[in-house]
Amino acid sequence: MAELPQLEPGFLLYIGGMDLRKNIWGLLDAYAGIGADLRYEHQLVVVCALTRNQRRRARTQAEELGISERVYFTGYVPDDQLLHLCQTVPLSFPHLFVAAMGALEGPIEPYPNVPPPADDLA
Questions:
Q1: Suppose 99 and one of 6, 58, 94, 121 were both cysteines; which one would form an S-S bond, judging by CB atoms 3.0 to 4.6 Å apart?
Q2: DSSP H helices in 16-74
Q3: Nearest 5°: phi and psi at 92?
Q4: Which residues contact 3 (CB under 8 A, 6 or more apart)?
Q5: Rounded mean pLDDT of 66-93?
Q6: What is the DSSP letter of 12?
Q7: Nearest to 98, CA basis, from 79, 76, 77, 114
Q8: Measured between alpha carbons, how far apart are the two ends of the chain, in Å?
């Protein structure tokens, strides 16, 4: 996409926010836990509006986890671009509470969801 020039083919998509229930920190930890070869093949794209302090904190965590080169924090994305991202993404990560409702939302969402482990939903 011309509007998001750092986007790489095969990216993984997270759409959410920075509040705790959105679980961005767990996502970054999980992404760091996959093999380097998979991270090389699949950039993590994080779509959410970020304040300057939130962006700094997220980048710092990504750097500490050794994944900063593979994570793209887009900031706010307009609806038309967001729709395009959702239509082209191979995989997305819902936040903790939405994941529990995945069976209800699945038929209407244009992309597959990867729910968190069951013990995270308790």
A1: 94
A2: 24-33, 36-41, 52-65
A3: -135, 160
A4: 81
A5: 85
A6: E
A7: 114
A8: 38
Cα–Cα distance list, 82 to 13, 64, 102, 103, 120 (Å): 10, 28, 20, 22, 27
Look up tokens 């070869």; give the residue: 37
Say if residues 59 and 28 touch (Cβ distance below 8 Å).
no
Dist CA 97 CA 22 (whole Å): 8
To which residue do tokens 């939302």 refer?
105
> Looking at residues 17-33, what average pLDDT do you find?
87
Q: What are the backbone dihedrals phi and psi of residue 17, each rounded to the nearest 5 degrees, phi first?
A: -150, -175
* Domains along the sequence of the chain with CATH: 12-102 (3.40.50.2000)
Which residues pair with residue 93 across a beta bridge?
14
The tens digit of pLDDT for each residue in 49-71 reads: 989 999 999 999 999 999 999 99
- What lies within 8 Å, CB to CB, of 84 at 6+ separation is 1
SS3 114: coil
